[in-house]
Amino acid sequence: MTLELTRTELLRTQQMVDGEWQDAVTGRRFVVTNPATGETIAQVADAAPADARAAVDAAERALPAWRATLPAERAAFLRRWHAAIIEHREDLARLISMEQGKPLAEARGEVNYGASYVAWFADEATRVYGDIIPTQTRGKRMMAVKEPIGIVAAVTPWNFPLAMIARKIAPALAVGCTVVAKPAEDTPLTALALAYLAEDAGLPAGVLNMIAASREQGVSAVAEWLADARVRKITFTGSTPVGKHLARESAGTLKKLSLELGGNAPFIVFDDADLPAAVAGLMAAKFRNGGQTCVCPNRIYVQAGVYERFAGMLTEAVAALKVAPATDDQAQIGPMINARAIEKIARHVDDAVARGAHVTTGGKRLDVLGPNYYAPTVLINADESMALTCEETFGPVAPLFRFETEDEVVQRANDTPFGLAAYFYSENLRRIERMAGALEAGIVGINEGALASEAAPFGGVKESGYGREGSKYGLDDYLAIKYLCQGNLA
Questions:
Q1: Which of 77, 144, 361, 413 has the smallest set of CB atoms within 10 Å of its CB?
Q2: Quick one: which H or E segment has residue 196?
Q3: What strand order describes the sheet that includes 20-22?
Q4: What is the pLDDT of residues 386-428, one digit of tens each?
């Protein structure tokens, strides 16, 4: 697939700062490649700390006027932006497929998903309510009001290059914050196109500033934001180690943080489950984006009474998946993002096999297709000695663990420092009630594998982070509560 866009100006290779498209101050550029082929797609401006600082300068200048706009005016902008995203869905999907690798049909779905957050927060912009506190003393009135926190820095991952940045920018803009943003170095083109559409929809200069950077330069650019007291909030989706680093480095200026970090999701199938539904749910949860999602099941626990049957059904379904580049209309699994991803997947599978697991399908690289393909894999007889039990594989590998009792599987499922998502399948209503309360996760799928929705709060507990994105709760992390006390009224 060549990168042929209906609207060619959506391919941006410069950064957007203060409403201007410009090169990095150093003049440096970095290469963006197609993971399906390794070929260069574009060379993009490689932001330095000075560029990151200029972005904050612009956001600071734009903040007073933007926060003073009426909520209905901000909502109107978000609706225009949403309409532009939907209008250019095909071009945006092609950008996603080219730089991230996911099949084109799945990329179209991501555009719709990301756009849904923009539409949702357009409506929520007009619903930021405060409270009148019941009078405690005669002659005194107390109120709590919510105000925009200020300049927000958004740092996003490569696995959903449109959806992740849209669901951070949209609530920030909805409440009157200004934004500086940096997408992942592997996938900057989609985010830059999204910024172009925001500008085209009438966003004032400086309200949204988008830079891109290589891995090395990106660390320095984000460090500039961490040290800058004008940046009042960091919102980040990515690995737990990086999230911890951001929390430490932002402590000096006591920034507010939203951290959506790594996961190690259990997927539990009880012997009273609807097995065809459980297989379908697992396929949706595990193999979306080739298993490169933070909520995809990493540990699949199947009760002994249905273990063999479930393994056979799953193996048949996984073996039927079509692995191909986005150029193939029938593709269901595309390439992994880069060679490091393939190496980790292969290491996990090899380690599991060496420790007694058995491959029922897959278990190999697909070099004939290109440099970054791995066959969708099912492993049976997995156990806790294997690296994939405690390390997030982030690939199309489904390891099956056998369990006997409910108490046992709860203990094993919760035996992880992470707590983003969890899933279980059961037809027993009493068990459903018990399991929903027992699982330590911010998101729980009950007889359901597709969890994401703009109307639902997304986030984790434990080392999977804190803060929530989406839903009516998604505005809270971009707001500060101010208490107003008015006296001498009697």
A1: 144
A2: helix 188-200
A3: 20-22, 15-17, 208-210, 178-182, 151-155, 231-237, 256-260, 465-466
A4: 999 999 999 999 999 999 999 999 999 999 999 999 999 999 9
**Active site positions, annotated:** 260
Q: How far apart are CA 437 and CA 90, in angstroms?
A: 42
**Residue type at 92 in one-letter notation:** L
Arithmetic mean of pLDDT, 358-369: 97
Distance between CA atoms of 99 and 193, rounded to whole angstroms?
13
* Maximum separation of any 2 CA atoms in the chain, in Å: 83
Structure tokens at 84: 């532009």
152 neighbors 478 (Cβ within 8 angstroms) = yes
**Does 453 map to a domain?**
no
Assigned token pair, 449: 């594998």
Whether pLDDT at 211 is above 70: yes
Question: Any idea what the CATH number is for the domain that residue 369 is in?
Answer: 3.40.309.10
For residue 282, what are the domain limits?
A: 265-446
Across the range 237-242, mean pLDDT stands at 96
Number of folded domains in the chain?
2
Burial code (b: 16+ CB inside 10 Å, e: under 16) for 416-454 equals bebbbbbbbbbeeeebbeebeebbbbbbbbeeebebbeb
- Cα–Cα distance measured from residue 484 to residue 490, given in angstroms and rounded to the nearest whole number: 17
Three-class SS state of 217: helix
What is the per-residue pLDDT for 327?
85
Examine the domain organization and report whether 243 and 362 are in the same domain. Answer: no
Structure confidence at residue 418 (pLDDT): 98
Percent over 90 (pLDDT), the chain: 98
> In CATH, what number is assigned to the domain containing residue 105?
3.40.605.10
Query: What is the total residue count of the chain?
Result: 490
- 285-314: average pLDDT: 97
What is the Cα 453 distance to its own chain's centre?
A: 12
Question: In terms of domains, do 275 and 339 share one?
Answer: yes
Question: Does residue 107 sit in the same domain as residue 250?
Answer: yes
- Output the pTM of the full model: 0.96
Token reading at 151? 């300049």
Tokens of 448: 């359901």
* Mean pLDDT, residues 378-391 taken together: 97
Residues 437-478 have pLDDT tens digits of 999 999 999 999 999 999 999 999 999 999 999 999 999 999
Angle between helices 71-87 and 163-175 (to 10 degrees): 160
* Token pair 């027992």 in the structure block, residue: 438
Q: Are residues 198 and 281 in the same domain?
A: no
Same domain, residue pair 292 and 417: yes
pLDDT value at residue 4: 84
Q: Do 232 and 297 belong to one domain? A: no
pLDDT above 60: residue 202 = yes
Instruction: Say if residue 435 is in the same domain as residue 420.
Output: yes
Q: What are phi and psi of 470, to 5 degrees?
A: 80, 170
